[in-house]
Each structure stands twice: as C-alpha cells, then as structure tokens.
Amino acid sequence: MTIEKVKNKLKFYANQEKIKVYKNFHKTSSGNYASEEEFLGVTVPDIRKIAMNNLDLSDRDILKLLESNIHEEKYVAAEIIAGKYESSLNQKIPDFYHTLKGVVCFGIFGCSEIRNTS
Question: Fewest beta carbons less than 10 Å away: which of 6, 76, 82, 112?
Fold first, then answer.
C-alpha cells in the first residue's frame, strides 16, 4: 500500500468527537510534547488495523509519516515499525532506529534504544 492510501484510511476512520478527548489526554498545551500536533480522532484499534495491513510500506514512507504533524500518522508509522520488525531477525531495524532521532516515542518500541543509538 502507498502512503496516500494509509492517510486516506486514517481519514476514513477519523472521529471528530474523539479529537477533544485526545487533545486533553496528550500534552497539547504550548511547550509540551504534542503542542504542534493535529489529531484526526482515530482510535488505537483502528490505527493498529491500518498498520497491520500496511507492513509492506517502504521505510521512506514510514519516515514521512513519522515526520508528520498529525498524531495518528506518527502513531500508525510506529505501529508499522513494531509489526514489521517484531518477530523478525531482520538486521535493518538498528539502521532504521538511527533515522528516528528526535521522534516522539509512543511506548511501542524501545525508545531508549532509539535515543542511545549513534
């Protein structure tokens, strides 16, 4: 699947009623980690469903999602990374972690590993 299809799926599952809840849950006030983020109101189960159906998304497209100012785009990218490398002995993951410096961590993959790679 392409990045455009992932974004369209997220928009399909968007829920305006959840946006306020998510903005209150995440630290969105000025100076906090999510102050610049926008929210679509997509639930975690829907994000995970989208991610698991898109494990073939290219690393380049995953990085584009991680750089987004839309919270759910970052989250789906993190879930794709987790799903892509979870049970794999694939050696690409350490290289991929190198590219993630400065990315907001969602507790989905080892944030300490990301911060400590150099």
Answer: 112
